[in-house]
Design a protein that fits this description.
Length: about 290
């Protein structure tokens, strides 16, 4: 059996490879695919097969997917280009005769106003029209996405945003990676669409308190309007596109787009999801060690 993991030089892909190894998959049965041979080298040193790929160069995908039984298509990072890139990967998987494809999507991708969802929706539609046996993992937000706020909060004593009282059912990347490993290894997940999230959804007041406990000082959440938020971000030097994205995402959170906490993820991985405080602490330690 050969399992291909795309995005293996990124956070989620690498953690998925680690989880496959931890669950007893032989290194020689894993093919880690990514853009950089140098970044793949540590996995090759473990005995993992490696392949340098580019989603915009289909010939690299054909070679990487050859003989594969299952492929994890970790959604690309080139926003605006992902639909075409994902189509190339899906068509390459079909041509290679891949038995199963697992795709990392967004929460409620086909029925949400989430700013991140349109490219995922389009990809899911391509998958539905393909001949592949597919499993969709609709990952909620990653706890690690908030690590960048810790230093700012420690310095200023506050988090600023326009998410209001909206909640986020985040989990750690390692939780989502373990779920990906499970569905790659096990049969019976074909055709499934899993809405994955942390076990609990937190507010930004709770995020601020959690960060405060981590850094050893009081941190509060200052809730502002979307217009005020945009002005603050622009004043901090962020470009217009980034400002628009951040404000739109906070609006999505305010409207409940990331609030649904289910037990599906913990059920797949056989343990509770990583609590917010633990996830932030571990991510900060990993960042410091990098």
């Amino acid at each position: 059996m050969t399992i291909v993991v795309t995005g293996a030089t990124g956070h989620l892909g690498r953690l998925t490879v680690d989880s496959l190894l931890a669950r007893g998959v032989a290194a020689s049965d894993i093919r880690a695919a990514g853009r950089s041979a140098d970044r793949l080298a540590p996995l090759a040193a473990l005995g993992v097969q490696t392949a340098v790929i580019d989603f915009e160069q289909p010939e690299t995908l054909a070679a990487a997917f050859s003989g594969a039984d299952a492929v994890l298509l970790v959604s690309g990072s080139d926003v605006g280009k992902r639909v075409a890139q994902h189509r190339n990967a899906i068509e390459a998987a079909e041509a290679a005769g891949v038995s199963r494809l697992v795709y990392t999507s967004a929460p409620k991708a086909t029925d949400t106003d989430l700013v991140l969802a349109p490219e995922h929706k389009a990809t899911e539609e391509i998958l539905a029209a393909s001949s592949l046996a597919v499993t969709i993992l609709r990952n909620n937000w990653y706890t690690e996405n908030y690590v960048g706020l810790i230093d700012q909060a420690e310095a200023t004593g506050e988090l600023v945003g326009s998410a209001g009282t909206g909640r986020v059912a985040s989990a750690s990347r390692k939780d989502y990676a373990e779920a990906a490993a499970v569905v790659l290894i096990e049969s019976g997940h074909e055709g499934a669409v899993y809405e994955l999230s942390g076990d609990t959804a937190w507010t930004f007041d709770e995020l601020a308190a959690t960060i405060g406990a981590l850094v050893g000082r009081e941190v509060v959440y200052r809730s502002v309007t979307a217009e005020e938020h945009a002005s603050i971000l622009s004043g901090a030097g962020l470009d217009e596109g980034t400002v628009g994205f951040v404000v739109a995402l906070d609006g999505n959170i305010r409207d409940g787009a990331l609030a649904d906490a289910t037990s599906t993820l913990s059920g797949l991985i056989g343990r509770p999801t990583t609590p917010l405080a633990q996830g932030l602490a571990e991510a900060r330690e990993a960042q410091a060690a990098a």
